[in-house]
Amino acid sequence: MKKGKLLGSGVTAEVYEWGEDKVLKLYFNKYSNDDWVDHEAKVGYLVHESGIMSPAVFDKVEINGRKGIVFERIFGNSIIERLIIEPWELYNYVQQLAVLQYNIHKFSSNGLPTQKERFTSKIRASSSILRGRLKRILDYMESLPDGESICHGDLYFNNVILSGNKLVPIDWNSAYTGNPLGDVARTCLIIRPPNLSGVPDPMNMLTYYPRLLAHQVYVNEYIKLAKVKYEDIDAWMLPVAASRLKDNIPGEKKWLMKLIDKRLAQLR
């Protein structure tokens, strides 16, 4: 079968039509290695088999030296695409995101990486930035409670498709099992960054308070559903912020380092 129309492109891959009801995620050469592709295929399979509504994994292919994975096609638009045409629905979608994440956290699976394994790897990758902070952050993370929930690891509006009346999370490459509150803490950081990448300063100023309110709506909804305290979510901010440094999001390094230093100071 030949790949069809290009549907989208991201950091690691392009997504093409593959027949009528499937898509091909074709990795760029930098990411087109067996370890990377095998990992995403395995994680996608385990998550789908757990019972979570997510794209099924069908096959691995190679096209012109580039490796890819054939997934079930989820028809619809991402939440971020919906918000472009209906921005007044922001707080409704944020609330739905919290419900979706809470329901994901009800599932568990053997075979996925553990939360602390994944965080440790990402934090160590930023050792040149963290320097003397590294050991204290890792020691603190080890003191946090473990868990057995499946966590998406990168849940936000770009990674959720509105298909009919259902929200379907996609891009499970960062998934792990662990304490769900660490997963919530990461989504908190994604919702309330200091600036939106590629957006002019005046626009960032105009969107600051709506983003702050969206964060509050999201957190309040999750707390209500999971019956947890905000302090327990906040306890994960230090390792989550340190692990996010590796993502190298434009405009975030200074903000994340300030957050990290503030949390380390509170530990003294």
From TrEMBL:
The keyword Aminoacyl-tRNA synthetase does not apply. The keyword Transferase applies. Pfam families: APH. Keywords: Transferase. Residues 5-192 form the Aminoglycoside phosphotransferase domain. It comes from the Bacteria. This is Aminoglycoside phosphotransferase. The lineage of its organism: Bacteria, Bacillati, Bacillota, Clostridia, Eubacteriales.
